[in-house]
Design goal:
Helix content is about 75%, strand content about 0%. The chain has about 100 residues and is mainly α. It has a single domain, classed as Orthogonal Bundle (Helix Hairpins). The longest helix is centred in the C-terminal third of the chain and has 31 residues.
Amino acid sequence: METTVGLNHYLILAALLFCIGIAGVLTRRNLLIIFMSVELMLNSANLTLIAFSHYLVNAVGMVFVFFTMTVAAAEVGVGLAIVVTIFRNIESLDIRKLNVLKH
C-alpha cells in the first residue's frame, strides 16, 4: 500500500518546526541556541514555500527560498561576528549579562 504525503503534512511539519524555533528563542538564554532557533524558523518558512511551490506547480516559491537562504547565510555571518565580539567583552554568552553594554 502506497501512501502519499500531501500539502497538509508539510504545513504541519513546518508549523511544528516554527513553534520549536519560537520556543527556543523565548526560553533559552544562550546566544548560540537563540541563533540556531532563528535558523530553524527560517527553515520552516522555506519548507512552507517549497511545499506551496510544488503544490501549485510554480517555481516562484523556490526562487524565494534561494533569497531566504542568502539572508540566512548573511545573518549567520553577522550574528556570529556579534557573538564573538560579545564573548570577548563579557566572556559569557548568557543574554542576561548583556545589560552591561547599556552604559
